[in-house]
Write a structure and sequence with these properties.
single chain, alpha/beta, Rossmann fold, Hypothetical Protein, Haloacid Dehalogenase-like Hydrolase, Chain: A, domain 2, eight-stranded mixed beta sheet, 11 helices, 22% strand, globular
């Protein structure tokens, strides 16, 4: 199979522990784009948090794509056009807020184009989201009243032990009205129903005349499971969550050992990695 498109999770996959793309990986991603292949940065991050890496990889020049908000939005980097987008129903912010605020140490986070809105109190995981995306935190009172623009997602942050309890209650309350899943054990993603990375990648593929068989997807987290299961070649990083390792077609090296570079060399450039 000649793979034509490479979808990459960012944190724990494309970037190393220092949140950087190594030079050899950057060069390999540039090379496949020069050959006409497409790259999709597929992340739970908001679009603003993906843009610096998109610029580093010259996605605009080569007509590649950003999939942000876990599939809530797809942006064509060349035209800067949003080519697919889904929003949360307007009536979910208030009941979600009242569920979350019952729990100690939990925060609820909304997004503006340039800031994070902390609805309770920033914890270490809200601060991590701020650092990753280079977006300042604004603490707001009456969180639901600040979710005035159509939202691609809402994030709940907290310790894994409490997040598991919140996840169960939120999923029970909203049933199939929303998609509710963890990207990391400390990040609970509240998404429009049916929206995940796989769903939106399939919409993208349909729009550009490619099939899932022509796609490689690489990831490490729970929110990468659907795209790894959907891809022609689903790749787990060696550092991936056990559930991801179990579902992958291929397990590459870790994000600190050039795992994405290994995949590009082996499956897209047909080189034998050292």
């Amino acid at each position: 199979m000649e793979y034509q498109i490479l979808a990459l999770d960012l944190d724990g996959t494309l970037t190393n522990s220092a949140k950087e793309i190594t030079k050899p990986t950057l060069e390999a991603l540039t090379k496949i784009q020069q050959q006409g292949k497409k790259v999709v940065l597929a992340s739970g991050r908001p679009t603003k948090g993906v843009l610096p890496l998109a610029e580093e990889l010259h996605l605009e020049e080569y007509g590649s794509y950003i999939l942000s908000f876990n599939g809530g939005r797809i942006t064509d980097c060349r035209s800067q056009e949003i080519i697919y987008e889904k929003h949360l129903p307007a009536d979910v912010a208030e009941p979600l807020f009242y569920i979350v605020k019952k729990y100690s140490g939990i925060d609820i986070v909304g997004y503006t184009p340039d800031t994070l809105l902390s609805g309770i109190r920033p914890n270490q995981y809200t601060e991590l989201e701020s650092r990753i995306n280079h977006m300042p935190i604004i603490e707001v009172e009456d969180f639901p009243s600040h979710i005035t623009e159509p939202a691609n997602k809402i994030l709940i942050t907290g310790s894994p032990e409490i997040i598991s309890l919140v996840k169960a209650e939120v999923a029970d309350y909203f049933h199939s009205y929303l998609s509710v899943y963890c990207s990391d054990p400390f990040f609970l993603e509240i998404m429009p129903r049916g929206i995940d990375k796989a769903h939106s990648l399939l919409r993208l593929l349909s729009g550009i005349g490619l099939t899932a068989d022509q796609m490689i997807c690489c990831g490490d987290g729970y929110n990468d499971l659907t795209m790894i299961e959907t891809a022609g070649l689903g790749v787990a990083m060696a550092n991936a969550q056990p559930a991801v390792l179990e579902k992958a077609d291929y397990i590459t090296r870790s994000n600190d050992e050039g795992g994405v570079l290994h995949v590009i060399n082996k499956f897209m450039l047909r080189q034998t990695p050292e």
